[in-house]
Design brief:
The protein is an alpha/beta fold and 359 residues long. The protein is built from 13 helices and eleven strands. It folds into two domains: 172 residues, Rossmann fold (3-Layer(aba) Sandwich); 165 residues, Dehydroquinate synthase-like - alpha domain (Dehydroquinate synthase-like, alpha domain, Up-down Bundle). The strands form three sheets. Strands 1-2-9-6-5-3-4 form a seven-stranded mixed sheet, with helices on both faces. It has a two-stranded antiparallel ribbon with strand order 7-8. A two-stranded antiparallel sheet has the order 10-11. α4 links the parallel β5 and β6. The chain binds the ligand O=C(O)C(=O)C[C@@H](O)[C@H](O)[C@H](O)COP(=O)(O)O. Belongs to the sugar phosphate cyclases superfamily. Dehydroquinate synthase family. Its EC number is 4.2.3.4.
């Protein structure tokens, strides 16, 4: 079992990563949260089928009453309606400030349940139990949110979890498309922070169906350590935390415009990363073998072109209304070297030209 300690201004908490990590949950609750009166597990339909019983079984040892609330799968959970329904459930079941929420699922459930915890009675504690590779990113760092039709994650908060328990056995049931989604965030972490890790990934991960337990452990702990270092320095995204948005400016625009659920988060940000790499080569002189990168990710099954049916003008508008963009121009995370990101405003004309090339 690996333990990574996260220390932010607002909270210190452990991230436990390993096979059977879920068995650590009862002890964590009885030692740190023995005053709790109730535990609510928020999970989605699919994860409830696969892993809810395992988690409930582990919680028996705590002797605490355990409730469950099941929400729709994926980004369909991150709507105002589902959020409001969760708040109603918490009120009707008389949760209060001595209650704990557990987010059991992928990034979407973590974002939703975390936002419910951040806002219910002005904030109650929550624990993240990620069940996807993608959530190695989203479960750590305290960004919690729901979507608005006008933009992804536009309504949210910074609310750190009390702990993250990452049981690698939960990853065994992941479909290939989900693995692909999560692996894109692993690639992102390597590109923004660690040249050697990027080369390790490129030489070792050539088939997403063949990742060994040891490789999962390496890439998840490295990814989390990279994220932890950034979040510890800049919890509320006043500066360098925005680097974690590499590939997300176009990526979020593609994901939202395709209709949530049609194209996964990771598949969308992979397209956004190719775009940001091209811009980085043109504008920052990034020395990068893009052809080799494209061959590698295509072999892993990623699409690298912007879907034809998406209009350039609509994508441009979404990029300019991204949270990072505070001026007229769209703000991008670019690389001047692998492992060395910067923020840059890019004029519309250059963004349009590059999108046209990538169609
Ligand atoms: O934690 C962060 O900070 C990130 O930016 C992580 C992203 O990878 C995350 O997936 C998310 O999409 C954040 O986007 P944001 O636009 O809501 O900041």
């Amino acid at each position: 079992m690996e333990t990574i300690q996260i220390t932010t201004v607002s909270k210190q908490y452990p991230v436990l990563v390993g096979k059977k990590a879920i068995q650590e949950l009862p002890e964590l609750i009885t030692t740190e949260f023995n005053h709790l009166n109730k535990i609510l597990i928020i999970t989605d339909e699919k994860v409830a089928e696969l892993h809810l019983q395992t988690v409930k079984h582990a919680l028996i040892k705590t002797g605490k009453p355990v409730l469950q609330h099941v929400v729709p799968e994926g980004e369909h959970a991150k709507t105002f309606e589902v959020f409001y329904e969760c708040q109603g459930y918490c009120l009707s079941q008389k949760l209060n400030r001595k209650s704990l929420i557990i987010a059991l699922g992928g990034g979407a459930v973590g974002d939703l349940a975390g936002f419910v915890a951040a806002t219910f009675m002005r904030g109650i504690p929550f624990i993240q139990i990620p069940t996807t590779l993608l959530a190695h990113d989203s479960a750590v760092g305290g960004k919690v949110a729901i979507n608005h039709p006008l933009g992804k994650n536009m309504i949210g908060a910074f609310h750190q979890p009390e702990a993250v328990i990452y049981d690698l056995d939960f990853l065994l049931t992941l479909p290939l498309q989900e693995l692909r989604s999560g692996f894109a965030e692993v690639i992102k972490h390597s590109l923004i922070a660690d040249h050697d890790f990027y080369h390790w990934l490129k030489s070792n991960i050539v088939d997403l169906n063949e990742i060994t337990d040891e490789q999962f452990l390496t890439m998840i702990t490295k990814g989390i350590a990279i994220k932890a270092a950034i979040v510890e320095e800049d919890e509320k995204e006043m500066g360098i935390r925005a680097f974690l948005n590499f590939g997300h400016t176009l990526g979020h625009a593609v994901e939202g415009s395709m209709g949530y659920g049609n194209f996964t988060h990771g598949e969308s940000i992979l397209i956004g990363m190719v775009y940001a790499l091209k811009l980085s080569m043109k504008k920052e002189g990034l020395d990068f073998n893009l052809e080799e990168f494209i061959d590698w990710v295509s072999q892993l099954g990623y699409q690298i072109t912007i879907p034809d049916r998406l209009e350039t003008a609509a994508l441009l508008h979404l990029m300019k209304t991204d949270k990072k963009s505070v001026n007229e121009a769209a703000t991008f995370v670019l690389l001047n070297q692998v492992g060395s990101p910067i923020l840059k405003d890019i004029p519309d004309s250059e963004l349009i030209d590059e999108m046209t090339e990538m169609k």
